[in-house]
Amino acid sequence: MPHLFKPIAFGPLQLDNRIIIAPMCMYSAENGIVQPWHWQHYGNLSQSGAGLLIVEASAVAPEGRITHADVGIWNIHCQDSLGKLLQDIRRDSNMPAIVQIGHAGRKASCSRPWQGGTQLPPSDINGWNTLAPSAIPFASSDVAPREITKPEIHDLVHQFVAAAQRVRAAGFDGVEIHAAHGYLLHQFLSPISNHRQDEFGGSLENRMRLLLTVFDAIKETLPHDFMVGVRISATDWIEGGWDIEQSLELAQLLDSRGCHYLHVSSGGLSPAQQIPVGPDYQVPLAQAIKAKVSMPVIAVGLITEPEQAEAILENGQADAVALARGILYNPRWPWHAAAALGAEVKSAPQYLRCQPHGLKSLLRS
């Protein structure tokens, strides 16, 4: 069997294969509530044959949204809407599904990407005041964020825990804590965005404190059968920023705390980043971390071909691969990968005629 189609366990969660649907914001919610767009989008992806569906970044607080149209998980209404979405999806699919939870910090209050993606000032009807570890804006043209206070940090931890509890109550299998792409938890990790002088800034130990506190609090509060993973940017791609050496320290601490997987991306902290974009460009980061931890490691980033994904796993560079834009472009990517590599995926009976063994039924239809 190809490595890509071998089962894998993310802690208590069993996956049929190692193809992960990465979380991708749709910017189509209303007041944090998922809309009809999400029904057709996630219903489609749930029939893709992938091993795990990660629902888009869902804000733990209204001010933690990237845009006014982001999905939220800050109240019972958000919980109920996501729960109804999952219930409808699971009528026809048993694909495991989790939710990425996060807070955008200084990268909040933006317009949607197709409307420019730039920050909206608090005076805009869809804008608000942002907060961050330090009063340093993401872009020089942005309104500077307000430095978050220590009582607010305490509240933030509770917001993440409450979000995880709502995700579980909605029926999902777990959460992915979003500590990547320049959002709030990543902002605390990076010395570029974190200039604090208290126990949450300065040393590496201090800059990791918030993420580890959030992780520990979720693990302590949620039952053992609830999967908890983390997504990080392994490097800022900026000299003097967060880098792979610091990521290795963080990864080992998360591993020792019982993290169920680490999803390794990069960048997003500053417009000054210099990213060597190309096929597999983030895979060496995942490979370096995999060598130091026992938990599964997910590689992501311009992984587009089945043979490419299979080689990553066969060479031991990662334990699973995640697709984002590639699976938006081709929602049946796992089916095509299975055909190319000589494997099969689980599919709804209505689609069985598309599998190699279903060709006879196709001739009779």
UniProtKB/TrEMBL annotation:
Keyword terms of this UniProt record: Flavoprotein, FMN, NADP, Oxidoreductase
Signal peptide: none
SUPFAM superfamilies with a match to the protein in the record: FMN-linked oxidoreductases
Residue span(s) of domain NADH:flavin oxidoreductase/NADH oxidase N-terminal: 4-339
Pfam families in the cross-refs: Oxidored_FMN
Gene Ontology MF: a single term: NADP binding
InterPro entries per the UniProt record, alphabetical: Aldolase_TIM, OxRdtase_FMN_N, YqjM-like
Cofactor annotation: FMN
Name of protein: Oxidoreductase
